[in-house]
Amino acid sequence: MSAPRDWSLYDAADTLEAVSHRRADGRREMILRIEGMHCQNCVRHIQDAVAPLTRSARVNLSTGTAELVWDERAARASQLFAAVEQAGFTPGPLNPEPSLRGQQRERGAMLLRLGSAGLLGMQVMMLAATQYFIDAPLEPAIELLMRYAQWIMATPVLLYCAWPLLDSAARALRERRVNMDVPVSLALLMAYAASGVNVLRGSGHVYFDSVTMFVFLLLVARWFEGQGRAEATKRLRTLASAQPLTALRESTDGLTEVSSAALAIGDVIVVPPGAALAADGRLLDATAELDESLLTGEADPAVRHAGDAVYAGAVNLGGAPLRLRVSAAQQSTTLSHINRMIHHAQTQQPRVQILADRVAGRIVIAVLLAAAGGVLYWYPQSPETAFQVALAVLVVTCPCALSLATPVVLAAASSRLAASGLLLTRADALLRLPQIHHVCFDKTGTLTTGEMRQVRLWICDGENEARMLEIAAALERGIRHPVATAFAGISTALRAQAQESLPGLGVRGRVDGVEYRLLADPGSDDDLTWIALYAGEHRLARFGLAHALRPEAVGVVQQLMTQGLRVSILSGDSERAVAETAARLGVDDYLAQLKPDQKLAELQMMRAQGERLWMVGDGINDAPTLAAADVSTALASGAALAQSQADLLITGSSLDVLPEALAVAREAQQRIRENLIWAVGYNLAAVPLALMGLVTPWIAALGMGISSVTVVLNALRLARRPATSAADWTPQPTPEHAA
Amino acid sequence: MSSLFVLIPLGLLFTALAAGFLLLAVRGGQFEDLKQIGQRMPDDED
C-alpha cells in the first residue's frame, strides 16, 4: 500500500466548492467515488470510518460512491478523504475526468485478473483431466511433472487473480468481522495448501483445478456485477461531466476563460456553438436553439428567446455563440440538483435490501458452522472425505446471490427509467409501484398543457364566423401569450398593421383599414377564458378558450387502463370543464371543484379504504397531495423540478413515460422475486447435498459461480431498452468520447 | 510418452507468453472502450 496522500488541496475554498456544495442547513455535502469496495461489509466499514467526522454518510456499493454530509466547523474535507483512505479504500471526488480514469484502471486490473485466471485455469484443467479420464496408470515421473505443472500455474491464480478476495477477507478478519469473502478465501487456501502437501508427499488428491475454476467463476460474477455498477453510474457521470469546468466570461476587456467555480450570479458568459452551458442563466440573445436532452430526455432542439431561463449542461445548437446572464453556477445549477437527486436515490437502501444483507451476513456464519460440523461428522470415517465435504460446503453456498438480488435490479431499472426521462428520487417507490391499482391525475398543467384552444364562440348577429376567427388570428400573430396559441392554428391571408400588445388587456391592430381590439372579457361564471373582439366600441364576437389537452394524454390514460389501473381525475376546476376533459379521455371517475385540502381529504379517504394510490401532478401546487399518495409523480421542469418532493420526476414534457414506468416497475419486481427465490432455493438445496458428500469441490465451484452470475444477468435484462430510442443519442462530447 | 517431458514445460512457457500478451493488451488500453470503437468514423489518414 502506498504512502498516505496529502488531501489538503480539497480544503482550499475553490476546490472545495468544486467537489462539494453547501446545503440549505449550512452543512456541506460531497459525493466521493470509492475504489475497492466489494461487499456490504466494505460499505459498513467505510461508514464506520467516516462516522465520527460526518453528520450522515451513505455509501453505495452498486455505484461505488459515498454521499457525505458534514459540518465544516467539525471536520475538513481532507480529513474525510484521509479517513476513507485509512480504511483501506481509494477515495476521489466524483468529478468526470479523474473518476473515469480510476474506474478504467480498476476495470483494466479486473480484466487482467479475469483473463489470466481463465487462461491458467484452462491449462490446469487440461492437466487435471488426465486423472479423471485416463484409467491406465501413468508413468510416475510424468504424473509428478503434471502435478508440479498444475501447482506452478495455480499459484499466480491464487496470489494474483484471487488477491482482492483474500485481501478483503483478511481485512475483515483483522477487524473481527466476517464477510462473504471469508469462507471463499478459507476454501481456496485450504484446497491450495492440501494440494501442495499432497504433491510433495507424492500421493493423495490435488485440487488445483477446483481452485482455478472457483477463482475464475468468482471473477466472472464480479465482472458482471461491475458492469451493472458501471451502467448505474453511467448517467450520473454523463450528468456530472455535462457541466463544463470552464466558461468564457465577458467583461469590459473582452472575453476571458475562467474556471466555472469563479462564476458569480450576474456574470455574462458566452457559449460557442457546439459547447455546453457552464451555468444556469437568462438568455440575452434574441433566440437560441439548445439541446436540453440531458435535462429533459427530449431529443428535439428547444428554441429559447431572450429572457428565457436556460440551464447548465444544455448544448448550444445554433451556428453562433450565445450570451447569457448567470443566475446559478457550480453546485447550485439545476443540473447539479438533478445529479444529486439521482445519486441520493441510488444510495438509498430500500428496506428489503437491509433485510437481505442481514440475512446474508447470518448465512456466512451458518456456512462456517456447517463446514465445521461436516468435518466433525465425516472425519472418523475418512479424513479425505471430511476435507472434501468442508471444501464443498464453503464453496457451494452463495450468500452474494442473496445480497445482490435487489440492488442490481434497482440499479438497472432506475438507469433505464432515467434514460427515458424519468428520475427516481426514492428507490422504494419502484418497489411500491407494482402494488398500485389506482392512478389519480391532477388536471391543469398535468393532463392539459400551457397552451389554449378555442372551444366556444359567440357572434354578433350578421357577422361571419370564419372572418371573425381570421381577424383574431391576424391580430394575435407573433404575440407571445398563451391566448395567442388558441389562434395559431387558423390560417388567414389577413395581415394586421400597427399591431400593438396592450399588457394585461389584449392586443389591437388595423386589419383591412379597420381598427380592431381583442380584449379580455371576464365576467362569465364558467371556467373558460373569454376574450372579445371589438371594432371601435362595438363588440363583434366573444371567444371561449380552454387549456388544451396534452396530445399524448388520451393514449397514456388508455394504456394505464389496459395495464389494469383505475384512472381518475381530481381537479380544482369547475364541474363542466373537468367533465369535458374526462369525457375526452374516456375517464369515468372524476371529482371537480376540489380545494387543495379537499383533494387531500379525498386521497386520504381512498387510502383508508385500502386503495393504493399513484398521484400524478405538476409538482408545484399539489405538494401535499403528492405526499399523501403511495407513489407520486411530478411533471415539472427547470427549477421546479429541483424543488419537487415527488418520488418520480418526469424531466421531459410528456406523460408517455408513465406506462413505461409501471411496466419497468412490474418487471423489476418480477426480477427481484426471481432472484430471491433462486438465491434462497439454491442455497437451501446446495448445502445439504454438500454435507452429504454428494458434491465434489469442482462441481461446488461451478454451482456457486453460476448462481451469482445468474442473479446479475437476470437483473441486467432490465437495463436492455427497446431498440430505437432518441434518448440513447448523446450529442454531448463527454470526456469519455473525446478521449 | 517421454515427449511429455518436453511438451509440458513447453505448455507452461506458452501459457506464460499468452498471459504476457494479455498484460500488454490490457495495459495498452485495447479493452477500454469496446462500444465506442464501432461507432468511430474510419480514419483514412493512415
Report on the architecture of this protein:
- In chain A, the strands form five sheets. Chain A has a seven-stranded mixed beta sheet with strand order 15-27-26-25-16-23-24, with helices on both faces. Chain A has a six-stranded antiparallel beta sheet with strand order 7-6-8-14-9-12, with no helix packed on it.
- Helix content of chain A is 50%, strand content 20%.
- In chain A, helix 5 runs parallel beside helix 8, helix 12 packs antiparallel against helix 23 and helix 12 packs parallel to helix 24.
- With 46 residues, chain B is mainly α.
- In chain B, 61% of the residues lie in helices and 0% in strands.
- Chain B has two helices and no strands.
- Classes of the chains: A alpha+beta (739), B mainly alpha (46).
- Chains A and B meet through helix 4 and helix 5 of A and helix 1 of B.
Describe the secondary structure blueprint for this structure:
The complex is a heterodimer of chains A (739) and B (46).
Chain A: H1 13-19, E1 20-22, E2 28-35, H2 40-50, E3 56-60, E4 65-70, H3 77-86, E5 90-93, H4 96-133, H5 140-161, H6 163-174, H7 181-201, H8 208-242, E6 246-251, E7 254-259, E8 268-271, E9 280-283, E10 287-291, H9 293-296, E11 302-305, E12 309-310, E13 315-316, E14 322-328, H10 334-347, H11 351-378, H12 383-396, H13 399-419, E15 422-424, H14 427-432, E16 438-442, H15 443-447, E17 448-459, H16 465-476, H17 482-485, E18 496-502, E19 506-511, E20 514-520, E21 529-535, E22 538-549, H18 553-562, E23 566-570, H19 575-585, E24 589-591, H20 596-608, E25 613-617, H21 623-628, E26 631-635, H22 639-643, E27 648-650, H23 657-691, H24 697-716, H25 735-738
Parallel strand pairs in A: 16-23, 16-25, 23-24, 25-26, 26-27
Antiparallel strand pairs in A: 1-2, 2-4, 2-5, 3-4, 6-7, 6-8, 8-14, 9-12, 9-14, 10-11, 10-13, 15-27, 17-22, 18-19, 19-20, 20-21, 21-22
Helix pairs in contact in A: 4-5, 4-8, 5-7, 5-8, 6-7, 7-8, 7-12, 8-10, 8-13, 8-24, 11-12, 11-13, 12-23, 12-24, 13-23, 13-24, 23-24
Chain B: H1 4-27, H2 34-37
